[in-house]
Amino acid sequence: AVLVHCHHSSRDKCLQCLDLVPYPTERGLVPSTIFGRIFQGYTAEAGKRLMEGSAEARRRETAGGSTLNPLATRFSLTYGEIEFWSFAAMLLSVAPTSGDVFVDLGSGSGKAVLCAALLFPFSRCFGIELVEELHQEASARVARYHLEVDNNSEVPDACRNVEVLCGDIFVEDWSSATIAFSATTCFTSTMMQELGRCASKMARGSRVLTLTRSLDSPNFRLLYSRPYAFSWGNATVFAHQRI
Question: Could you point out which of 49, 114, 165, 240 has its C-alpha 20 to 30 Å from the C-alpha of 181?
């Protein structure tokens, strides 16, 4: 399983991958198979087409910004996805426990939400997505998830309380989450500041994972920054904890 893209053999290590701890393969095989069935036939390119053809993208193209989210820009709609095994390792690094609540802020087709739900005993997993077309795609995948998981004894620890919401991450209340993920690579500085303000409503000890940009808030301490693999290549993940 590729956790980060490095220019050496799988037997070697470099500074880029030295500290990465993989999710146990034997525990992840059944979840990864189910994940593959849920997203069979769906590619990152398909998600990109949905994003680029969305009503929200057209609004930003004509208005120079979002009529739904005035903080956002056309660039912040750039689409990318997680990779199952690298995302599993990323979540493992912030030690989810039974009772934690996971949220994906900008959940796209639902991949991060369903990966988290399959692998860890979260009490709830949910996502928030602004683009209606992607939300509809995610809703269909969540329905498949429930068909695969709800009565499946092979994944007894998988979260059954899974949903996706269509809304604005800067408006919706996600303060109940204890682990949050947001692909912030294309966020503006203003968006990062607003994300920090919203995240500050989370309980002490909560963890927030961002990409490329560190969370802009004095209410969080940085746990680490390191690269992980995504659909477009490597991205630096910043892990923060609410203080």
Answer: 49
CB-based contact 95:23 (threshold 8 Å): no
Task: Flag whether the pTM goes above 0.70.
Answer: yes
User: How many angstroms separate the Cα of 235 from the Cα of each of 11, 13, 229?
Assistant: 22, 18, 6
Half-sphere exposure for 24 (CA within 13 Å, toward CB): 4
Q: Under 8 Å CB-to-CB from 98, ≥6 apart: which residues?
A: 121, 123
